[in-house]
From TrEMBL:
<dbReference type="Pfam" id="PF00732">
    <property type="entry name" value="GMC_oxred_N"/>
</dbReference>
<feature type="domain" description="FAD-dependent oxidoreductase 2 FAD-binding">
    <location>
        <begin position="267"/>
        <end position="301"/>
    </location>
</feature>
<feature type="domain" description="Glucose-methanol-choline oxidoreductase N-terminal">
    <location>
        <begin position="313"/>
        <end position="537"/>
    </location>
</feature>
<comment type="function">
    <text>Long-chain fatty alcohol oxidase involved in the omega-oxidation pathway of lipid degradation.</text>
</comment>
<keyword id="KW-0472">Membrane</keyword>
<comment type="similarity">
    <text>Belongs to the GMC oxidoreductase family.</text>
</comment>
<feature type="compositionally biased region" description="Basic residues">
    <location>
        <begin position="11"/>
        <end position="23"/>
    </location>
</feature>
<dbReference type="GO" id="GO:0050660">
    <property type="term" value="F:flavin adenine dinucleotide binding"/>
</dbReference>
<dbReference type="Pfam" id="PF00890">
    <property type="entry name" value="FAD_binding_2"/>
</dbReference>
<dbReference type="InterPro" id="IPR036188">
    <property type="entry name" value="FAD/NAD-bd_sf"/>
</dbReference>
<keyword id="KW-0560">Oxidoreductase</keyword>
<keyword id="KW-0285">Flavoprotein</keyword>
<dbReference type="GO" id="GO:0016020">
    <property type="term" value="C:membrane"/>
</dbReference>
<feature type="region of interest" description="Disordered">
    <location>
        <begin position="1"/>
        <end position="23"/>
    </location>
</feature>
<dbReference type="InterPro" id="IPR000172">
    <property type="entry name" value="GMC_OxRdtase_N"/>
</dbReference>
<protein>
    <recommendedName>
        <fullName>Long-chain-alcohol oxidase</fullName>
        <ecNumber>1.1.3.20</ecNumber>
    </recommendedName>
</protein>
<dbReference type="InterPro" id="IPR003953">
    <property type="entry name" value="FAD-dep_OxRdtase_2_FAD-bd"/>
</dbReference>
Length: 718
């Protein structure tokens, strides 16, 4: 970024784009009457509640000792009172929710708009809410926005139990409302309710950018020698910047079609700077080729990252982190910044197991994966990323996995990471603020720019350019001669397209974005976008009260994200996620406004762990932001078994309450070991992993999809 990042000074640190400035205007287009209905929904989901004074003093917590929660959070009575009194109906939160709704799949947007519209009328409210909107005063029926908050809450509870379409409306608004409420920060990049839930932005013990020589804030940024940041550049300044980097540009001055482009020539153009694109740029440039990388995201470094969940998700993730399958059951995550997924992933750097490489070679006819070359390539990647499985100190959630496994006599393995042994950062998923995690942005791309590679950021490849040619030996009549890209996205002011002509064009935009690029280019192969494999994930949680002295110390968001794992089967593992307050609140079940606030108050001491499955079933990418995905029956079985094992591990580690993300909030109070070996536990846990349609999955690690006849896998071993 051209704007200099601030050093760690007080609260306002990092890059302005990652600090969470107020939006200047809203573009959601909802009518004021629809906004009233939405505000009323937000107010019922997160209502203003009179704090139960006894609870704040630890006397009347219906499930646990509230005093412990308060001490753990370091929150004063005032903090807790303010938290319970805060409502999502206030301020700009409903507008933020409306804005987030527009990022969902269009079917969900239309559905939500229609439901809100119906709720603006009395008849419509009666149709959707029934007798709950009937009053004793003339005209005896009121609109949703005029209903008392308790009745609105009752309506939402019913919708939560309903099926399509009210269930979907409920799920969308519930997720987005909680996400907006817990991630929106004030002008000091703070959120008053964080104190009450025991959260604060982790202070940095490790120096910013201190982990790698490449990322020291005082030195030039690792990619400065090659990066051209197109945000804010106009056509003239863009040309000048490209020429400064040694790229010759031609622009036609007549009125032919080519006058609408700046034309640039190179040996190879690569779309995407993630795991695949970054390594390809380094390898090709090392072989002496002139390479240009086109990346639609922005360039940030360790000194820029703020670890503030809302703005960081917004800038670093595809669709600002609000990306789900078209059936709204699976949340998808993909990085979109320089470094791609490697800049935000959870650092687990597991070599492709031999069983998998053999399967690719034998069953999919790709012998290269079983060859020594592939093993050598893996060695080279691990060496450059300095992958280590040492970890000096584990965080709260990983300690729990380890303790639970030990208690059950199960094996917990160390997980290799691309960061140092001392790395204790829980916010690598929002860009590692210490600079210790080695993504492509600090390694392979840094090597590339030192060899003359140019990286265009804020530059989106729209289509590859195909030209007719004489049919060759392979019978193809068209060849790819480069691509067309725009720099006029968010903040860009260039008017012309960039045409990059190259002998070789590489699409490395990840499994979700590569198929749309190929289809937009006119390619018709019916296999494009098919066989999408995700790593479906289903989560369980366990609450560990802080007052028990034998209990593991720490908070759920502290420490390396994945340092321990348990292997359930060849296809299923148990690991731990990174969940900031926003993601946590959107995922955990909502039973009522008060219950949700009680759950959030226990945020810091609620550990999550997930079962992750190497899926047999497959989904399909239909277009940009349109992904069809439903786990197959076999995968659901694996997920259930994995989830059951995850719950047992949490119980064995000493959780006093466990649950899944089943939307009705079913949970089990437990007392550690007494339940471990009994059938009772199995009986009690089983309902939590059943009734599958009520669960939400995460597809966090996109594994690959078909791009024609060959199935490609992501650059990072999965
Ligand atoms: C939150 C999260 C956690 C993860 N944790 C792990 C982990 O612990 N271990 C692990 O092995 N894997 C993990 N993964 C998965 C891993 O990061 C991905 O498999 C890997 O990044 C895929 O590499 P890629 O090169 O295919 O695509 P990406 O790394 O996603 O890179 C694609 C790049 O292309 C850019 N792009 C897309 N379309 C265009 C376009 N039209 N024009 C220009 N640029 C474009 C994107 O902005 C992006 O930067 C995680 C992923 C996520 C999202």
């Amino acid at each position: 970024m051209t704007m200099a990042a601030e050093e760690v000074t007080g609260r306002r640190r990092g890059h302005p784009l990652l600090q969470g400035r107020r939006r200047e205007r809203y573009t959601h287009g909802l009518h004021p009457a629809q906004m009233d209905a939405l505000r009323a929904m937000c107010g019922a989901l997160i209502p203003s509640l009179l704090p139960v004074v006894d609870r704040l003093h630890g006397g009347a917590d219906d499930d646990h000792d509230g005093r412990g929660d308060q001490q753990m959070a370091g929150a004063s009575k005032d903090d807790l009172e303010r938290f319970y009194l805060a409502s999502a109906a206030g301020g700009t939160i409903p507008h933020e929710v409306a804005e987030l709704v527009t990022r969902c799949v269009w079917e969900a947007v239309v559905l939500v708009k229609i439901v809100l519209w119906i709720l603006t009328t009395k008849v419509g409210t009666f149709a959707l809410c029934g007798r709950l909107c009937v009053t004793s005063k003339f005209p005896y029926v009121c609109k949703f926005a005029d209903m008392p908050v308790e009745r609105r809450e009752e309506v939402l509870k019913r919708w939560n139990r309903a099926r399509w379409p009210l269930k979907i409306t409920f799920v969308v608004i519930k997720i987005l409302c909680h996400y907006a409420f817990y991630t929106m920060v004030n002008e000091n990049s703070e959120k008053p309710c964080w104190k009450a839930i025991g959260y604060n932005i982790p202070e940095l013990d490790e120096p910013r950018g201190g982990g790698t020589t490449e990322a020291r804030p005082s030195s030039p940024r690792p990619l400065d020698a090659g990066v051209v940041e197109t945000r804010g550049l106009n056509d003239t300044t863009l040309l000048r910047s490209l020429e400064d980097k040694g790229v010759a540009v031609t622009t036609q001055q007549d009125d032919t079609w080519s006058a609408h482009h700046h034309t640039v020539r190179c040996d190879a153009v690569i779309v995407g700077s993630g795991c695949g694109g970054g390594v390809a740029a380094a390898v090709l440039s090392a072989a002496g080729h002139k390479v240009i990388v086109v990346e639609k995201g922005d360039y940030f470094t360790a000194a820029d990252y703020t670890s503030i969940e809302g703005p960081s998700m917004d800038r670093l993730y595809e669709k600002g982190g609000i990306f789900c399958s078209t059936n709204v059951t699976t949340a998808l995550f993909a990085g979109t910044t320089v470094g791609g997924g490697s800049a935000v992933n959870w650092s687990a750097s597991i070599r492709t197991p031999e069983t998998v490489t053999r399967e690719w070679a034998v069953e999919h006819g790709l012998p290269v994966f079983a060859s020594p070359e592939y093993a050598r390539a893996m060695d080279a990647v691990c060496a450059r990323l300095a992958v280590t499985d040492g970890c000096r100190e584990e965080g709260f959630q990983n300690k729990i996995i380890r303790r639970g496994c030990e208690a059950l006599g199960l094996k917990a393995d160390a997980v290799p990471r691309n960061s140092s042994e001392a790395h204790f950062c829980g916010s690598c998923h929002l860009g590692c603020p210490t600079g210790d995690k080695r993504g492509t942005d600090t390694t392979w791309l840094a090597d590339s720019v030192s060899r003359g590679v140019v990286i265009l950021t804020g530059c989106k490849a729209e289509r590859v350019v195909l030209e007719s040619c004489k049919p060759g030996r392979n019978g193809r009549r068209k060849k790819c001669v480069g691509l067309l890209a725009t720099c006029s996205g968010d903040g860009g002011i260039t008017k012309k397209l960039i045409r990059i002509e190259a002998k070789v064009s590489i699409a490395a935009c990840g499994a979700l974005m590569t198929p749309p690029l190929l289809r937009n280019s006119g390619l018709k192969n019916r296999h494009i976008g098919r066989n999408l494999h995700l790593h479906p994930v289903s989560m369980a949680w366990g609450y560990f009260p802080p007052e028990n002295k034998l209990m593991i110390a720490g908070k759920c968001y502290e420490g390396g994200i994945i340092t321990s794992m348990h292997r359930v089967t060849d296809r299923t593992i148990v690991e731990t996620p990174a969940l900031g307050p926003g993601c946590f609140a959107s995922l955990v079940p909502w039973e009522s406004g008060r219950d949700m606030k009680d759950r959030m108050r226990r945020y810091a001491r609620t550990a999550h762990a997930f079962a992750l499955v190497r899926d047999r079933g497959a989904g399909q990418v239909d277009g940009e932001g349109r992904v069809r995905y439903t786990p197959s029956k076999d995968d659901v079985h694996e997920l259930r078994d994995g989830l059951r094992r995850t719950l047992r591990i949490l119980v064995a580690a000493g959780a006093t309450e466990v649950g899944t993300h089943r939307s009705d909030g079913l949970r089990l109070r437990c007392n550690g070991s007494e339940l471990l070996s009994t059938r009772l536990l199995a009986q009690k846990l089983t309902p939590m992993v059943l009734r599958w349609w009520r669960h939400t999955y995460l597809g966090s690690g996109v594994r690959g999809c078909t791009l024609g006849r060959m199935s490609v896998r992501s650059g990072v071993p999965t």
